[in-house]
Amino acid sequence: MKTILISIIVISMSVITVNAQMEQKEVLIIGTMHTVPKIVKHSYKPILKRAKKYSPLAIYVESPQGNDSLSWSYLKNGWSKNYQAFYQLSDSIKNIFNPDLEKYNAILEKSFQDMSAADLDFMISSFIYQRDNANYEFYNYIKKHGYTGVKKPTRHEDGDLTFKLALAENIKLLKSMDDQQTNGEYHAAWSKCSKEGQSNGNNAINIKLNKKEYNAAIIPALFRGLGKHTNKRKSLERLHNLSSFNYVRTATKGCTDGKRYWNERNMRMANNIANQVIASNSARNIVIVGASHVIGLEKELKRNYPSLKVVLYEE
Predict the structure, then answer these.
(1) Which of 295, 202, 305, 286 is nearest to 249 (CA)?
(2) CA–CA separation, 250 and 193 (whole Å)
(3) What is the mean pLDDT of residues 101-105?
(4) In the chain, which end has fewer C-beta atoms inside a 10 angstrom radius, N or C?
């Protein structure tokens, strides 16, 4: 009887372990180059192919969340003219658009192919109302280019990677995860660090690292391998060091502040990703983000959310 009981316990524990492993959620982080030059306009093709092979159930993008009032407080007058215009558009629609959740959900049940022009217009207005810039851009893309997407390279991660991937995988909504609450302070610190670095050798190190990354990318770029090169760990580490001021040998006020703001932004972005992944039913999740953020996000996710499996493009 005792032997039977032990066997039952062992089998039960094995089943629990297997189920836990099956339920583990994965986050694949892909670093992008944002907009690429015309000479390497096809750079996103290999990345798109890799992303399709992964077959994600959710796509996370570097765009501010609609309910992130602190980020939008900065962005409404911040660095991006597009974000400024979108904020004003979102404010203006509050008085003239009536959200209809039932209609919204009914349209999301349709295939992209079956969405009418009126459906797309309603969804676009809904995203403006929600201050959801990522899906506002996505559905405008569909309205302009159709559910098959544009064939000619846009040279940008949205048109050549994110939107095409979402359409191919029938993912109706992109998930925003960016945080720009202290982006203004970060850029101010960047400028200050640059001025301080003119006399202490920090700028010379910065220039050397940038030149090394540029030279290393030349040959891969000529053979449509810029995306793959950018996502190699050595390249990601260099980009991370440049943006986080880890290259600095002489600590200064500007560089120290910049490093703190960069790391804190990555931490908040990681939190935005993890909280949504954990609350979802999606086992395979792709994060599409500027390559400079990849190492920081990887570190934050692995340190603070050990239940998630975090992998990079080249792994």
Answers:
(1) 202
(2) 10
(3) 97
(4) N
